[in-house]
Structure formats: C-alpha cells, structure tokens
Specification:
This protein has no helices and 5 strands. By secondary structure, it is mostly beta strands. It has a 5-stranded mixed β-barrel with strand order 1-2-3-5-4.
Length: about 110
C-alpha cells in the first residue's frame, strides 16, 4: 500500500483580540483570538473588508517565546496546525470548535 503524506499546516498574520494567559503543569500557555482581514471589491467597485476570527493556543517553547508581549491590538504571525474539537453545549446541541496550535509565533 502506498503511503500518502498528510499535511496540516496553517500560517496566519493578524491582530490580537482577547487574551487569556494560564499555567498548566508548570508550562505557560496563552489562548487568544486573532482577526485576519481579506480585502476585495464587489462588482460595483465597493471595497469590502471581510474579517475572520481565529482561536490560537500558544504553549511556551523554543518557537513560541515572549508570551507576555501578546496583548490586545498586537500584530502576530502564527505558524501551526489546525485542530478540531467537539463538545455538547448546555442546551444539548453538539458544537464543533476550531483552534490553531502555534508551533512558531512572531510578534510584529
């Protein structure tokens, strides 16, 4: 059977929204939201700015440093992988949650 390579890589650059810093088993982790913008023009020439919000998880490591500098409004460049989780909400509906696990992070 032929081995097929699977790729799960994501690269984002945008502005930080909310930030929550925690420590888990002695390791620092920061969960934050980040918005990326996609600019385009409609057929009639009107400019549109489409913002997409992303959930980022950054564990302090060699490629992810200076977590204390991540604050609302900062511009960050994130390299990582996409992870999907499912959970059941309080009203009993199943929800799907996407987050980016940062492997490398640069504060611009």
């Amino acid at each position: 059977m032929e081995q097929i390579e699977h790729i799960n890589k994501i690269e984002l650059q945008g502005r930080v929204g909310t930030v929550r810093a925690n420590e888990h088993n002695g390791s620092k982790v920061v969960n934050f939201t980040m918005v990326t913008d996609y600019l385009y023009k409609t057929r009639d020439g009107a400019a549109v700015n489409e913002g997409t919000w992303h959930n980022i998880v950054a564990w302090e490591s060699k490629g992810v440093q200076d977590l204390d500098r991540i604050e609302k409004g900062a511009i960050v460049h994130v390299f990582g992988r996409l992870r999907t989780s499912r959970y059941t909400s309080a009203d009993g509906t199943e929800k799907q949650y996407y987050e980016v696990l940062a492997g490398k992070l640069e504060i611009i």
